[in-house]
Amino acid sequence: MLESRGDRPLKMNFEDQLNALIFFHLEEHVSARHLLQVLKDDDFARENIAPVDGIGKSSFSEAINNRGLEQLQFVFEKLTREASNILPRQHVALGELVAFDGSLIDAVLSMTWADYRKGSKKAKIHLGFNLNQAIPTKIFFTDGKGAERPFVSQILSPGQTGVALCVNESETLTP
Predict the structure, then answer these.
(1) What is the DSSP string of 92-160?
(2) pLDDT digits over 128-139, tens only?
(3) DSSP character for 53?
């Protein structure tokens, strides 16, 4: 069970948090503040997405800060397993094809672990993507300087063929 890092108990359970994050992305909210305003003012959001007693800015921030990648990684892995049992397999004759890539994503300055350059915070996502079923299969996060090579053996399983796209940052790809 997760415990608050502050003096107050957490006001959101994990299901509340997932509902809010999914709603945030589906509705393309521009900020957490905007999401919280909608959760307060919009009838549908208040009744179906927000925690039963509502949620304030500091309580929302506390809940988000106390739930890290472990919980979201668990949900990702469970959804991936379920999807792989349902989705048809394309190009079966080619075997299991898994694309892997490391891509930089912007990080906020408070993400002190996301070291990249002086004055710049970036995280790196290392992703495995099942090309036969068109779904992501593995995901790992590192600081922006994290290399891809150590994750290849974690992304690929025996019998799978890895596909990598190597692009020089100074080059552009055209179709």
Answers:
(1) GGG--EEEEEEEEEE--TT-TT-EEETTEEEEEEEEEEETTTTEEEEEEEEETT--SHHHHHHH--TT-
(2) 999 999 999 999
(3) T
